[in-house]
Design goal:
Length: 221
């Protein structure tokens, strides 16, 4: 993908795979990377580091919890006000929770649907936009669910389903739908894999044993 002079929105762009994308896209001369993330001292420090490395005018933090419609609307609105449009949306926001599975579904699937549909509405040719690209980050567990992470696997299966479904409307929307499915990746929620289990019949020790040696570094492109 040629990203030179492109305006790119990345959900969850301040950590893990999202941060890796942010760095690589800036290195490849993206015009601006808008990081949609939930503000925190670590997130703000990360974005400030990117600004120092690449310039204040090439990246920015937009306070956005993808489970909150008003925050999604506001963040996209600010990007539109600044640039008139954007070229690419990368949906990399995601969490892993062995306990709060409702919130995990809200972030990993419902939030991604929300930002995807909003982006299509804003840049779709059927609405007078110029078209563009949406890249959704799912997981290999979306294709082959793992019994130790059934609900997480389900959220990623949902991401695969909506992406493959929406891609057929490219002739109408002008929005390419792309999908990547990383394997086990070393991110900020990796330690949570072993913190607790969804159900009392899932053995945390077996989970730990079955994950050993499978976690790799965040992918880059």
């Amino acid at each position: 993908m040629n990203v030179k002079d492109k305006v790119i929105v990345i959900t969850g762009g301040a950590s893990g795979i999202g941060l890796s994308c942010s760095e690589k896209l800036l290195l490849r001369d993206a015009k601006f990377v808008a990081i949609f993330d939930v503000p925190s001292p670590s997130v703000e420090a990360t974005v400030n580091k990117l600004k120092k490395q690449f310039g204040d005018n090439r990246t920015g933090l937009y306070a956005c919890d993808v489970t909150k419609n008003e925050q999604v609307e506001s963040s996209f609105g600010k990007v539109i006000d600044l640039f008139g449009s954007f070229d690419v949306l990368i949906n990399s926001a995601g969490i892993f929770s062995q306990v709060n599975w409702q919130h995990m579904i809200d972030v990993n699937f419902t939030g991604l649907v929300r930002t995807t549909l909003k982006a299509i509405d804003l840049i779709g040719k059927h609405k007078g936009g110029k078209g563009g690209t949406i890249l959704n980050v799912a997981s290999t567990l979306g294709f082959k669910p793992w019994e130790y992470m059934p609900i997480y696997s389900g959220t990623k299966s949902g991401v695969i389903g909506i992406t493959l479904g929406l891609k057929h409307f490219y002739p109408i929307t002008g929005v390419r739908m792309l999908l990547v499915c990383p394997g086990f990746t070393d991110t900020s929620f990796s330690p949570k894999l072993f913190s607790a289990t969804y159900f009392d019949f899932i053995d945390a020790e077996k989970l730990k044993e079955n994950t050993k040696g499978k976690i790799c570094q965040p992918w880059v492109f």
